[in-house]
Amino acid sequence: MVHVREMLEVDIEAVSAIRVRGWQAAYAGIVPQSYLDAMTVEGDAGQRRQSFSQPRRTSRDLVALGDRGPVGWICFGPCRSDMPDMRRVGETYALYVSPDLIGQGIGRRLLGEAHAQMKGQGFEASALWVLCDNQRARRFYERAGYQADGAAQDDVYGEITLTELRYQRVL
Fold first, then answer.
1. For a surface tag, which of 63, 93, 116, 164 has the fewest beta carbons within 10 Å of its beta carbon?
2. Element (H, E) at 147
3. Is residue 66 in a domain?
4. Is the pLDDT of residue 84 over 70?
5. What is the CATH number of the domain that holds 8?
6. Which residues of 30-114 form beta strands (DSSP E)?
7. CB under 8 Å to 19, separation ≥6 — which residues?
8. Considering the domain boundaries, does residue 147 fall inside one?
9. pLDDT tier, 43 (very low <50, low <70, confident <90, very high otherwise)
């Protein structure tokens, strides 16, 4: 059983561990292994502390707490697109669950709470970006009502360029 609450500064190390381990598990065979191997919890936590303390931060962070502390994390906020038709759209920037707990409903719980909060903030839809080759994540988001909307962007990881697809759903 997990419950969801706002992320606190004390959660940063645990969230960074979830994110780094999540990347290393989810993107193995997609993102270059050298890139994944170079990721550290300490480096991620340092960046997270810096962004978490920004006074004008518009993103929200939630954690799923289990009996061992944080076991999942979601970050969301206004859509980062500068297109006028995206002003009423929220965006899920990141969603990670401890790799050993994937499939237990934690991601669905976090996403549901983020959707409720986005709707409460006046957003009419939610968007997110997912690596084209990450079939597991694409299936997860499609089951949650998201559909690819035709937008794509490329990201460079080490020496490899990977394509991300944008998904959207009505809230």
1. 116
2. strand 147-157
3. yes
4. no
5. 3.40.630.30
6. 60-66, 69-78, 89-97
7. 44, 73, 94, 96
8. no
9. very high
